[in-house]
């Protein structure tokens, strides 16, 4: 089965000879459905609108004219391509339908077979392009929604950190201060995070290798009780505080990724 063969064309005409001719023209390349009744044709469209890329309809039809029928197709599946077959006297109605966007192309009866095939091939390419852009739009909307949700989550998380009465410091993978909440800045006597961001956390939290190993052991044992921690404030004074440290670990080593601290 070719890529085109998975797609359907619906041909609508009240003359069986016309339907047979259209079926024979496209049966080798597409699935072809036919109907001699516009109401039944609308039911077919509703049943298989995901696979349907083109509707070809005669203008002179019982129940409703082709232009009205194709405008209803627009309501069901706007991306579906539409060709109107007309007699000479119906040309104005066909042009009006194109201007209104309910018809993509009209061909006068009797049509040239090669012209019809080329028209359908072009509309099929246009349809696939429309699908591609529609997917891009939907993906973009999904990304925007995900971005908004992520932003909302980050704002909630930041709000939680800022509401804590204990100091909270987040450490980057390189060992630099990435964030300190308002309570932490007040304890350390800094006005803004910019004054301390990118500093090594060891410039502020005076930890020896032995001290870090002790905190790491507490972390592994899930011991929640804070330990003594020496901290240097912005004026250079050193304070005795209580704190806990969180770690990121791999197979061979560990690193500090967060410090919670408060005045003792």
Automatic annotation (TrEMBL):
Name the UniProt record assigns to this protein: Response regulatory domain-containing protein
Keyword Phosphoprotein applies: yes
Alphabetical GO biological process terms: phosphorelay signal transduction system
Response regulatory domain location: 8-124
InterPro entries with a match to the protein in the record: Bact_response_regulator (IPR050595), CheY-like_superfamily (IPR011006), PAS (IPR000014), PAS-like_dom_sf (IPR035965), Sig_transdc_resp-reg_receiver (IPR001789)
Keywords: Phosphoprotein
Record PTM 4-aspartylphosphate, positions in chain: 58
Pfam families cross-referenced by the UniProt entry: Response_reg (PF00072)
